[in-house]
From TrEMBL:
Domain of life: Bacteria
Lineage: Bacteria, Pseudomonadati, Pseudomonadota, Alphaproteobacteria, Hyphomicrobiales
Segments of this protein annotated with the region Disordered: 1-29
Matching Pfam families: cNMP_binding, Pyr_redox_2
Biased composition annotated in UniProt, kind: Basic and acidic residues: 1-11
GO molecular function: oxidoreductase activity
Organism annotation: Ancylobacter mangrovi
Domain Cyclic nucleotide-binding residues, every copy: 28-148
Protein name (record): Thioredoxin reductase
Length: 564
């Protein structure tokens, strides 16, 4: 059964997306000049393949980099029972690879020699050295890797299919996990897609098995957890319990990713631990317009994706779908326990687990989470809101960004706040845009009183100042109110304030200069939204993540001095 997208890359004038990387072959599939080919050859060894030989296959890890000298290499998507589907053919002067070749994760595609072919084969270790030592070549390759991943995502290539209902909380969770981790996939909605029944019959599945994830047209995962999905896709990292890192960053939001980029770029052995995927709370922002250097704005997920690639380029490892459950600071090196039985040892810990939105105190909230009640407003949730009314609860920047984004999809957006308005809690550019929009209505001095629906949210009732109640037919509600720190895993180790935020500013060994992010335990630092008294802004979090590396160097230097 073929469950691949039927139209893989139409030209831009025939329905293709103007930003489609496949319409930019000079950057996505560049042909390197002879001088660059010669320089790359110094890092690798010549190799030959007969026509039909595989250079690598779907699921292989730690795949080498191949530069084609003569012949041709077909890049293929595994289509399971029906064989393979051609994505692109690399000619002489071109090279294989996309982002998973940089990270060492399981690759998404196959590479097969189309005819007798000669290549330069560069191992992963040599590839990292080359990218660092040859920045002009590295820039071309990394840009191509990023664009190729974007192309795989846009064209739903890679052979991963999510089959389920658009109203299923589990199906939405799976899609969110794949999206947060930049993993290409195709969605078959059983409520609207005519091919859904055929897929169910082909794999002998009943409705009770949904949602399922189908990998390469063959492997079927029923109701997979994020951890099981990550394992099956090869996203998870293989950890050595005896290895001691210089830096373990817990949390891959803006603060954690910034710390990882700066630590790894300065030669520190760095690992990042993330429960779901890069982005943190900022990853739920559809567009951030006041972040330095992006005058037209950038989505939180795109910003996180770039930072992730940057950190991995410098050698940082990223562990996803494994949440930190506790920190053992009674001995040294410190140990972070992950859900399951694994632990990570490090000389320095950076706490960057951020904060989460508070939940409304309203009956039936949990029943509707993922089935009408959301905590993020990305394109994934936006698709659920087309031509219907939505409610956004909250008066901060995240709520404002969500309302503006959703106003382009929903028939109308209602913003509900308890206070008198937005000017005290939201950036002026967002307030002005909301006031000027005919598609958005602000309801001050309001609170939700009831969520109504059978299986999914169907209506929302709220009480206005003075006691009057309003009920609207609303199928999606977005909560973005306040913040609760993700600090439970630190209980019994570092000092927290009465709200659970990590207290910092401690002076150890008279090193006042690095006390700003120092916790009550020497060598354990906190940055970003999880830190008490921090400024809850993306730029501030990035700044803290970069600055803390100075404190890390000081701590590691004191350890080295003590050991002499």
């Amino acid at each position: 059964m073929n469950i691949s997208p039927p139209d893989r890359r139409g030209p831009a004038g025939d329905g293709g997306m103007p930003t489609d990387p496949y319409d930019r072959p000079g950057q996505t599939f560049p042909k390197l000049p002879p001088a660059m080919v010669e320089r790359i050859s110094r890092y690798g060894e010549p190799a030959s393949f007969d026509g039909g030989d595989y250079l690598f296959e779907v699921g292989d890890r730690g795949v080498d980099f191949f530069l084609i000298l003569d012949g041709a290499v077909d890049i293929l998507e595994s289509d399971g029972r029906d064989g393979h589907v051609l994505i692109i053919t690399h000619e002489p002067g071109e090279f294989t690879g996309e982002l998973n070749h940089l990270t060492g994760r399981a690759v998404l595609v196959c590479a097969r020699a189309a005819r007798p072919t000669r290549v330069i084969r560069v191992t992963r270790d040599a590839f990292r050295r080359m990218v660092s030592a040859e920045p002009d070549i590295g820039e071309i390759i990394l840009r191509a890797f990023i664009l190729r991943r974007v192309g795989l995502i846009q064209h739903a290539e890679g052979g991963t299919v999510v089959l389920g209902s658009g109203h299923s909380a589990s199906a939405l969770r799976i899609q969110s996990f794949l999206t947060r981790n930049g993993y290409p996939h195709r969605v078959i909605d059983i409520d609207h897609d005519a091919s859904a029944q055929q897929a169910l019959e082909s794999f002998h599945l009943g409705p009770g098995a949904l949602p399922v994830v189908i990998l390469s047209g063959e492997q079927v995962l029923e109701h997979p957890t994020n951890r099981a999905l990550a394992d099956a896709l090869g996203i998870t990292e293989e950890l050595d319990p005896d290895h001691v890192y210089d830096v373990a960053v817990v949390g891959a939001g803006p603060a954690g990713l910034a710390a990882a980029v700066y630590a790894a770029s300065e030669g520190l052995d760095t690992i990042v631990i993330e429960a779901v995927g890069p982005g943190g709370q900022a990853g739920s922002s559809s567009r951030i317009e006041n972040y330095l250097g992006f005058p037209t704005g950038i989505s939180g997920q795109a910003l996180a994706g770039r930072a992730q690639v940057q950190a991995q380029k410098f050698g940082a490892r990223l562990v996803v779908a494994k949440a930190a459950t506790s920190l053992d600071c009674s001995g040294f090196p410190y140990r972070v326990s992950l859900d399951g039985t694994e632990t990570i040892a490090a000389r320095t810990i950076v706490v960057a687990t951020g904060a989460r939105y508070r939940r409304l105190d309203v009956p039936d909230l949990a029943r509707f989470e993922g089935q009408g009640v959301h905590y993020a407003a990305t394109s994934l949730e936006g698709r659920l809101c087309v031509d219907s009314e939505v409610v956004v609860v909250g008066g901060g920047n995240s709520a404002g960004q969500a309302a503006i984004f959703l106003s382009g999809k929903a028939s109308h957006v209602h913003i509900l706040v308890r206070g008198e308005g937005l000017t005290d809690t939201m950036s002026d550019y967002l307030v002005r845009r909301i006031v000027e929009s005919s598609a958005i209505t602000l309801h001050p001095r309001c609170e939700i009183t009831a969520l109504i629906g059978e299986e999914c949210l169907e209506a929302v009732r709220w009480r206005e100042h003075g006691g009057a109640e309003t009920e609207r037919q609303v199928s999606n509600l977005f909560q973005m109110i306040g913040a609760e720190p993700n600090s439970d895993w630190l209980s019994g180790c570092v000092a927290l304030d009465d709200k659970g935020f990590v207290k910092t500013g401690y002076v150890h060994d008279d090193r006042v200069a690095v006390a700003q992010h120092a916790t009550s335990i020497p060598g354990v630092f906190a940055v970003g939204d999880v830190r008490a008294d921090s400024v809850k802004r993306v730029a501030s979090s990035v700044g803290e993540g970069s600055v803390v590396v100075h404190a890390i160097h000081g701590w590691l230097a004191s350890l080295a001095a003590a050991a002499r």
